[in-house]
Write a sequence for this structure.
């Protein structure tokens, strides 16, 4: 499809403001060795070569970028000819990757914003599905998303180039979309999530005109490719700013577009313990990322969808289903619904289901079952999840403490301990329907915790 509309409405590329080396904070010492080599080699070969995007933004803010993107007037083929360690990738957006050991420097050719009729820039219903028209650096700047992401560090004279007011917005700590926000979100709805994520990561505000279309255009996210939303979810929640991203998404009404079941439950009265579980999970995840410890998407999704699945399972139990079967049906349904938005790879949904399925089993402390549970390969994750849930529920805190101790006991000692666990229906029910209320109501809940869930459970629809 040709896009005459875009040709007419393409912003006129502004001229660059040049900020000389002496007037900005970017030092070559903070640029990775690989990126510097790419920049110099391109420059020596007579090409224009600039650092661009998140790296320039983060360096100007005094941060330490994890990856460095280079923009150049060399075509991908010319880039490949200059570097032995180079491969070309991407169809929708053709790029060169130059590899130095563990570092990959992404090199993109300046993109134009007009359609030359070759089909290399392709819009479907206003959505950008292909963007391979090369252009000038001025054109490259205006097709980027936010002004603070359209700053260039020019290796020719170490100056920073700004044609869209990005330096001012950096100073004012503000995210502002380049061009007409509505048109830019229609081209690519994921830009709405990028706005929330970057605002959270940088502690920036979102300019009013940039945030205004969220309410009307947020629903376009339902049409974004679920695989891309999975990638974006990991960037939002597992990159060290998960809690802030979650709050920003919710505040701007975007959570409901990506995690509808989660947002629906959070909007209900009395969802405080669920919010606490999610926020605690994200805070722990952020801390692990800061300490360079591994984090798994499975735990994240287990937490985000916990209350929807618990309510669905409870609704089935209330209508007479066996609890274990109810859990497995509820898990299957909630994950299937979520997959329509976010394509969670199978290996993670399997882990999510296991973490969930083990929750009611923690209450079944018969000798055979307890030993089997302890040997389960996913025991650790499921136990960690139980501990998080226990944070808001005295019954579960007791259960979690029991399992904490169980892990430190030898086989024989644990066997003795298990013999003294009273058969308790209430604790089992509590595992299916954890603390709805806090301490003051504790006595009254005993023995009927399962009934604490309203019959209008989420799972009923
Ligand atoms: P991060 O620090 O999370 O990596 P980033 O801004 O570098 O943030 P990337 O996804 O690495 O994000 O993108 C690199 C650059 O490419 C951005 O800074 C921006 O200039 C441009 N860009 C990325 N995604 C889009 C988009 N959807 N629309 C327009 N420009 C984009
Ligand atoms: Mg980046």
């Amino acid at each position: 499809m040709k896009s005459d509309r875009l040709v007419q409405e393409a912003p006129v590329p502004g001229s660059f403001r040049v900020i000389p080396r002496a007037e900005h904070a970017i030092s070559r010492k903070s640029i990775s060795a690989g990126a510097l080599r790419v920049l110099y080699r391109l420059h020596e070969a007579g090409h224009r070569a600039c650092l661009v995007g998140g790296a320039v933004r983060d360096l100007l803010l005094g941060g330490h970028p994890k990856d460095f993107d280079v923009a150049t007037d060399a075509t991908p083929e010319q880039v490949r000819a200059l570097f032995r360690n180079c491969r070309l990738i991407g169809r929708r957006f053709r790029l060169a990757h130059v590899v130095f050991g563990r570092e990959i420097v992404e090199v993109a050719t300046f993109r134009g914003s007009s359609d030359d009729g070759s089909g290399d820039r392709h819009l479907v219903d206003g959505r950008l599905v292909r963007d391979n028209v090369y252009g000038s650096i001025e054109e490259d700047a205006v097709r980027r998303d936010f002004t603070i992401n359209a700053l260039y560090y020019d290796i020719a004279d170490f100056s920073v180039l700004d044609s869209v007011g990005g330096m001012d917005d950096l100073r004012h700590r503000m995210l502002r979309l380049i061009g007409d926000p509505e048109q830019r979100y229609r081209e690519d709805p994921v830009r709405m999530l990028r706005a929330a994520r970057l605002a959270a990561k940088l502690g920036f505000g979102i300019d009013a005109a940039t945030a205004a279309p969220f309410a009307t255009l947020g629903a376009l996210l339902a049409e974004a490719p679920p695989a891309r939303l999975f990638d974006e979810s990991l960037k939002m929640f597992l990159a060290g700013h998960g809690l802030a991203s979650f709050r920003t998404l919710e505040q701007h009404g975007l959570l409901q577009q990506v995690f509808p079941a989660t947002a629906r439950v959070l909007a209900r009265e009395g969802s405080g313990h669920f919010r606490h579980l999610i926020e605690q999970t994200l805070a722990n995840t952020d801390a692990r990322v800061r300490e360079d410890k591994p984090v798994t998407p499975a735990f994240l999704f287990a937490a985000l969808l916990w209350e929807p699945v618990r309510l669905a399972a409870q609704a089935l139990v209330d209508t007479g289903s066996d609890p274990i079967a109810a859990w497995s049906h509820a898990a299957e349904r909630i994950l299937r619904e979520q997959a329509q938005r976010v394509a969670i790879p199978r290996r993670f949904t399997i882990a999510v289901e296991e973490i969930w399925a083990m929750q009611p089993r923690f209450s079944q402390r018969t000798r055979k079952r307890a030993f089997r549970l302890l040997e389960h390969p996913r025991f650790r994750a499921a136990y960690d999840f139980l501990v998080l849930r226990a944070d808001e529920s005295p019954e579960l805190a007791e259960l979690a403490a029991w399992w904490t101790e169980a892990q430190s006991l030898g086989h024989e000692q644990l066997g003795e301990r298990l013999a003294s666990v009273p058969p308790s229906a209430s604790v089992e029910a509590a595992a299916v329907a954890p603390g709805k209320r806090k301490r003051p109501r504790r006595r009254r809940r005993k023995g009927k915790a399962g009934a604490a869930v309203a019959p209008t459970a989420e799972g009923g629809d």
Notes: Confidence is low (pLDDT under 50) at residues 1-12, 425-431, 433-461.
